[in-house]
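Example record for the data management plan.
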Amino acid sequence: MSYLPYGAQPQLRRGASSPVRVDWRRSLFGFGLPPPRIENASSNAFRLDINALRALSVVAVVGYHFQMPGFAGGFVGVDVFLVITGYLMTGKVLTELASGHFSFRHFSMMRMRRIYPALAVVTASSIVAGWFVTLPREYLKHLLQALSALTFVSNFAFDSDNGYFSMAAQTKPLLHTWSLSVEWQFYIWMPLVVSLIWRYASGSKSKISTVIIALLAVTALSLAWCLWQSQADAMGSSFFSLRARAWEPLAGGLIAAAEIRRWSEDATRPRWLQNGIIAAAGWTLVASCVIYPLPEARWPSVLTILPVLGAAMIVGARQWIGEASLLGMSAIQRLGDWSYSIYLWHWPIWVFALSWLSLRGYGVNATQKILMVLASLALSVVSYRYVEQPIRVRRDFWTLRRLLTTSSATFALLLSFVAVASLNGGFPNRLPDYLLPAELARRTNTPRDECFRNSNSTKNATGTYCNFGAEETAGKPSAMLWGDSFANQYLEPISSAALGNGIHGLIATQSACRPFLDDPVRNSADQQPCRDFNRSTLDFVLNHTEPSIVVLGGNWGNALDVSSLADRLLSSGKTVVLIMPLLNIGFDLPQRWIEKQVRAGGAIGEWSVDAAPDLTMNSLRAEIAQNLDKHRDNPRLVMVDPQSVVCEQNRCYLVRNGEANFRDTAHISNVNAIQYRGLFDAAFRSALHTEIKAYERMD
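Corresponding structural encoding:
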């Protein structure tokens, strides 16, 4: 029994029994030449079911990204794509190994011919579009992401930009390329591992069996890692990780390997696979996952098994692959043919359309979403017709040397452009000068930013705590800044005030981790790294004489967290400097400021709004004050109210003197953070006065 090659069969016109040559120039919409399809082991029938599964997957992804009803779980389309990729590519590698014709170089070039040209066109188009609508710093970051996309490492790039203060997903035109990078990395290690096993195993049956065992082991390890990471990784890095995703394409790869083993033994398919029950269950499972609002926050997770299992059932069942089936409908097959281009184009269109609409003060309604879908489809058809197909089919013109030369020249040109952009600061002169202060407000780095822990409680700096303020001196009070980003944002004025008052300080700040007195019931929903961090910080403070001054700040959701921790610290003889909540703006201030100025056609140097209760968080502030009222005569409790800096006479200033007071929806801007120094000067003087009196009483 011979092995049938995967993904490299002669092109067959539907219904034909022998290869025919089709001229790609004759069909604008690509009807003439569909992409390579997998054939049934027993006939030359096309795998229309796989192409239909591609269509469903890309429709699901687009529907989810465009926020359309009925696609609440549409992001699972990517997981389905990975299963298909694993099935096709693992099968291709194994059949070519069995026939003695496998070449890693040929395999890589085949995948490059399929993936790279359209990706390069979309990437270049996004760079051109970004020139007109993207601020300098964001544009430079976009250029670097473009380089990572074209080198298939964008999953690492976007993972590193996945922190609390990273740019929003809907401002990254190439964010979706992370999945292509994961695929390409799979294309590197899978053929290498499989070919090595094939080389050193003996006997054809033994070879394929050994490959299956090895793939099963890797699949199990990857799935175990995925499930562990989904619980332990608060940063969500597993979303972009091949280690946590490898089991998905390997699920398809195992099906391909099992089929090849069965065919090599001239075995028939089990009877239970010879009907459509398995396929129908698979389609139902995938469709249900697309419709149901699955939790994306910790994806991939145990629930990811559902769409992967559904896709594997469809691929393995090999049902409804005939031309007369529902899946063989021309519209469905065309969407399958165009699926790669649709996936490439839809996300940049969404990102840039949102930017254009936002600048002009428009929302996104159903009509505009339909127009975006049509634009994605139109560009996809053009891309498929004039980029994908010619390069894949016209190999007499697009030789391997010409393809590599063109790709290398494109990448070199982009690299040069990125270098010039880096030296130029993202070409700020292309935009009006009055927009630049808004970009400056987005700057998120603070003094000693390397000391700010991520949500997994790791930081770049060594040592348990970093220092700020004055040098540590025996016999003098010291302080600790304890909290999340809403405490860390005041590090510059706090450091300056501490230095001016001769106070040495320690930094204990962690992303998305407000300070609280850990309670097994009340804090059961909080991340374990945050709970551990708060417990260890409290133990450190209580078990040492210094720091005697604890500066607390955080994004508290309730007053109980504040009062319970303050009570504990005050009862232990610590002085508590409590930073009260500032403002909850509810929108991206720099972006909204840009939009207002663009619509006004000039600079807006001052922008104030009514001090509404929701904006000033009056209820939370009142509850905190009420809970701490019992300490009103305790000099060790010092309240700092930053609202007094930005609000006056029932008005709160979002922009003043041409500078934004906030860098996002709630955090203060580092541009003018020093304006809060006076508050902390007064707080530290009061705290020192209290501590000096305590020292005198001890003497």
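Summary line stored alongside the record: Residues 90 and 190 are 7 Å apart (CA to CA).
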